Task: structure prediction
Amino acid sequence: MPVSFYDFKRLHSVELQKNALLLFSEIIEQNSYIDGKYNKIFETEFAKHQQAKHCILVANGTDAIELALEAKNIGTGDKVGIPGITFHATAEAVLNRGAEPVLIDVDPLTGLISIDSLKRILSHTFLKAIIPVHIYGLPAPISKLEQICRPRGITIIEDGAQAHGTLLDDGEENLERGDLKPVGSSDNLTTFSFYPTKNLGAFGDAGAILTQSDDDAQKLLSLRNHGRSSRGLQFFGRNSRCDHFQAAILYLKLPSLKEHNKRRTEIAGQYLQLLSSSLPELGLPGKNFLHSSSWHLFPILLKNREQKLRLKDHLERKQIASTLFYERSLGEERPLLDIPGERTLSTSFAEKVLCLPIHPCLEEDEVTEVVEGIKEFLA
Ligand SMILES: Cc1ncc(COP(=O)(O)O)c(C=O)c1O
Result:
């Protein structure tokens, strides 16, 4: 049975398409293409969903990081710590600001930013900011990072591109789902991408920045719209507006996010249960993430690169999709070979990691098919 990595045909049902076309007609009839009614409704609703005071929609998730850095006056010559496991847009945004990325190593089992590596780097390098990434939808240890960064005046910008609905959790003992708050609820600027494959995806590009600060929100509103403000032009910004069509789709899809994340969590639970007999042959995300991750992706760790590629081939022959997120750690990407920092664990993580299908329309028998394919390979 073929198993695909994403399934937009199932996700974008006939009913969703019908409703989307109704919204598109309304927008066209009203000639309201930029910053329209659905931009405002979505901004209010998404801020509420993630427990932030403000949501500022922008053109994409990379702009969101760049604008967040700009709002915090981080630019030319400033050093910004980023984890070695992330989509390279995190580094790109830092470089586009004229700032210098410094690699922080990651936890060997999750790919999340390592507290120990950050502490070591701070013992000899001053960082103006760090950008922890909630990679795969798993929560980065934000309150531990805040304890380190706040006294030193280091700005934290959370890259939540993969974390719509993720709950913040530093791995404290005995916390229940109800005790946890979502990504976006902290006092840090938090950025999101609504690229179509994300847990909440537009029909094109879109992104957002969440903040609790009225001042940061005002600055970001101005920066995304050429520096315009009610007080006239105070500084130049850029065009990073999110168009009304995309906002309307996000408005339409937001109510399904909770249900979709719940389904992703069920699938993650199934994978964890069915693959547990293959431990320690395989590395799996801890069960403790079942109550906090948005399960944007489901990463497993093989012994080495060769075994990982052989498993990928094996699954491919059975028409089961799997993906290399990420084929290389940031420090191995050609434009980033010379950036400073720590990279050993990130390199080894990227060598071993393979992501399994986990979209919300995946059926139970498809999950079983993936698991059987893996077990067959390991046997
Ligand atoms: C971790 C991470 N950061 C940043 C981005 C950039 O978002 P976008 O593609 O919307 O610019 C992405 C998305 O692809 C991402 O996964």
Q: What stands out?
A: The pocket of pyridoxal-5'-phosphate is lined by residues 60-62, 86-87, 89-90, 133, 159, 161-162, 193, 195, 205, 207 (CB under 6 Å).
